[in-house]
Amino acid sequence: xxxxxxxxxxxxxxxxxxxxxxxxxxxxxxxxxxxxxxxxxxxxxxxxxxxxxxxxxxxxxxxxxxxxxxxxxxxxxxxxxxxxxxxxxxxxxxxxxxxxxxxxxxxxxxxxxxxxxxxxxxxxxxxxxxxxxxxxxxxxxxxxxxxxxxxxxxxxxxxxxxxxxxxxxxxxxxxxxxxxxxxxxxxxxxxxxxxxxxxxxxxxxxxxxxxxxxxxxxxxxxxxxxxxxxxxxxxxxxxxxxxxxxxxxxxxxxxxxxxxxxxxxxxxxxxxxxxxxxxxxxxxxxxxxxxxxxxxxxxxxxxxxxxxxxxxxxxxxxxxxxxxxxxxxxxxxxxxxxxxxxxxx
Length: 345
What we know:
By secondary structure, the protein is α+β, with helices and mostly antiparallel strands. 18% of the residues lie in helices and 40% in strands. The strands form four sheets. Strands 1, 2, 3, 4 and 5 form a five-stranded antiparallel β-sheet that branches. Strands 6, 7, 8, 9 and 12 form a five-stranded antiparallel β-sheet that branches. The protein has a five-stranded antiparallel β-sheet with strand order 13-14-15-16-17, with no helix packed on it. The chain is elongated.
């Protein structure tokens, strides 16, 4: 093998440094599904120094041209952003949003500054549009310097439009549920006869120091479908940053062995062979006092064969803590616990 020259070595080092620099960039995010997601995408583009993409999120240009806009971030190394819940108002085929926003900008010199205020956004209803299609866009943003830490600088509300009420959050959750599950949940819709449940959950993360003010999330249970003896539900969670996400729940994958391979026979063994996630739960109930979600899935109508799950909400998410299985089709109710982190040693 021929020895490499100094020029080749230097080129290799520069290439490696370039790869490492690109690897340090935040993951690409381009999401216009909600005001919160769009503003996060805006600052993702700025952090990745993709100023043309950032500029494109505005319906009304934020500067006289792209070069002027990019020059405003010339010394900016990174921007952290938090958002509140958007309020909204509708008029003539459009929805107008007001979104509380706070950012922390770190300059190349190491100086950090916090700004807070409101973004105004507009969404033109797709049904009234022609070509070219106009997605959700930012109309304006007014952020002013703040002396408060990032989380405390976030405004409680924006504008004179509808306030950030629980109803506004529910409406956003309903739209997301319809978008994700409208074609999956055959019983979805107001005609289902089942009201959407809503629970406010106050909690702390495990890394919070003692005395930290509790965080707040909102849990929604949506009716999905109903069979002869089971009812199916979907859960969405709204966090304090204004994000609303469908929930998935861990559940064990079971290997059930019956005598002679016949499920009507005696159960020889029930083993957990792995774990999977479920986005729909059967016959579920949430207890707001214990922050526990329980399910009872009947495998047949008489209820002698079934499974029961228990998930507890802690540190911002649900953890599977207990799972019982009654795998015997013997006319009796005799569940066996196959997983138990709830009882303790």
